[in-house]
């Protein structure tokens, strides 16, 4: 099998994993090195899959006009990959068609050839934002943010994001210059570099870590002072823990996954930072310590992360949101017990769904009268001005800054002194 076919066969494996279950793409990418592919072929396979997922709605709409009956799922996936290559990766038409046909089961090669050629005669499908998201999610966004808001959110699905970094030392001008980075509000960096981040200037020296601009807001909004005590209740993959430690706080990083915490420990070592790491479920942890600052970036549907993880949109289910909302409420109860009198709690989720954000904040204030909102000021900590809500929390939407950022909800609470 030629290198071109090997790479595309790997893309088929990745796409199947991405659509099979939540987290499936990450698992498959973690085993990509075991498939015997060259780095170039692995990179191509990933690029094809990401393009397919970002444009899956328009691709399927185009295919549905050419298919008289539903083909086996592997064949639909092959066609999806073929059209993504031709329309969004500038693969020559003959190469996109021929490689797709060669990977198809022999009895269906005629069908695959005919569908590919017919779809390509029509040209690249239009990308009305309404068709970039799963219909049920787009309808939810319309209800929450209005028709134009939903369209603005969905339009970001098709865009390849820049890379955002957080500096260990925000005044590190040498690293900023070496990376040729743009300084974002709040002090993060934005780059248009691509490729292996471990080879970028300052990585081995522990000068920075990868962290979306929106994901950096919750820890900044704790406004930690040196030597304060702080806990990150769902710490992995560790970006917020690193921020808290870099601020000089005495940090406990809690996560139920010991394996993920080992990666946090490795990153702490690379960055020259210190934190206590504890493998435990935050809702069942028996330690009785309380902290000056508590950060709960809770488990969620992660629909706000679609810029880097477009597969989350196609794995999410309506029932997930209700079950996750119940889990978030339990985590918030556990977080409240960790806040010392006079301390503060920041709650965040990388979800666009109101039940996981605004709904949780309102319910928390009803059931925990010892807490009140500590209002987040417009543009505080580098937050987009458009994200400030009248209730004093943040509803960050992907289109709130040029170039985009993850969708997030962030609320800050303060506990009474007695």
Which secondary structure elements does this structure contain, and how are they paired or packed?
Layout: H1 3-20, H2 24-30, H3 39-54, H4 56-64, H5 73-88, H6 93-103, H7 109-122, H8 135-155, E1 163-167, H9 173-179, E2 182-183, E3 189-191, E4 208-210, H10 217-221, E5 229-232, H11 239-246, E6 250-255, H12 258-271, E7 276-279, E8 291-297, H13 311-315, H14 318-338, E9 339-349, H15 358-367, E10 371-373, E11 394-396, E12 408-415
Parallel strand pairs: 5-6, 5-8, 6-7, 8-9
Antiparallel strand pairs: 1-3, 1-4, 2-3, 9-12, 10-12, 11-12
Helical stretch count? 15
Principal-axes geometry comes out as: globular
- Report the mean per-residue pLDDT as an integer: 95
Helicity range of the residues?
40-55%
Structural class, from secondary structure content? alpha/beta
């Amino acid at each position: 099998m030629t290198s071109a076919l090997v790479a595309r066969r790997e893309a088929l494996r990745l796409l199947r994993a991405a659509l099979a279950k939540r987290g499936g793409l990450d698992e498959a990418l973690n085993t990509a090195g075991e498939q015997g592919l060259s780095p170039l072929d692995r990179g191509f396979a990933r690029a094809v899959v990401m393009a397919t997922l970002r444009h899956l709605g328009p691709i399927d709409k185009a295919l549905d006009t050419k298919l008289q009956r539903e083909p086996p799922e592997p064949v639909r996936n092959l066609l999806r990959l073929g059209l993504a290559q031709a329309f969004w990766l500038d693969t020559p038409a003959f190469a996109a068609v021929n490689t797709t046909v060669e990977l198809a089961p022999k009895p269906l090669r005629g069908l695959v050839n005919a569908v590919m050629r017919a779809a390509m005669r029509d040209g690249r499908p239009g990308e009305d934002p309404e068709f970039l998201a799963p219909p049920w999610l787009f309808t939810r966004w319309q209800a929450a943010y209005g028709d134009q808001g939903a369209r603005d959110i969905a339009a970001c699905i098709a865009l390849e994001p820049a890379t955002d970094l957080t500096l260990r030392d925000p005044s590190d001008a040498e690293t900023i210059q070496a990376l040729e980075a743009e300084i974002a509000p709040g002090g993060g960096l934005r780059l248009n570099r691509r490729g292996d981040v471990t080879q970028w200037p300052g990585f081995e020296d522990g000068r920075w870590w990868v962290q979306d601009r929106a994901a950096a807001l919750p820890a900044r909004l704790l406004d930690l002072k040196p030597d304060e005590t702080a806990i990150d209740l769902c710490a992995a993959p560790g970006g917020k823990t690193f921020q808290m430690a870099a601020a000089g706080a005495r940090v406990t990083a809690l996560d139920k996954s010991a394996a993920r915490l080992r990666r946090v420990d490795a990153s702490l070592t690379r960055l020259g930072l210190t934190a206590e790491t504890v493998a435990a479920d935050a809702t069942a942890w028996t330690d009785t310590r309380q902290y000056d600052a508590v950060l709960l970036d809770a488990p969620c549907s992660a629909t706000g992360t679609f810029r880097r993880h477009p597969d989350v949109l196609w794995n999410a289910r309506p029932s997930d949101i209700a079950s996750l909302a119940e889990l978030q409420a339990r985590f918030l109860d556990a977080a409240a017990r960790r806040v010392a009198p006079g301390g503060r709690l920041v709650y965040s989720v990388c979800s666009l769904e109101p039940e996981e954000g605004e709904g949780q904040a309102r319910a928390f204030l009803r059931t925990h009268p010892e807490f009140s909102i500590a209002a987040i000021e417009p543009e505080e900590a580098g937050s987009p001005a458009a994200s400030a809500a009248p209730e004093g929390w943040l509803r960050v939407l992907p289109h709130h800054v040029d170039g985009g950022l993850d969708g997030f909800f962030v609320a800050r609470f303060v506990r009474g002194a007695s």
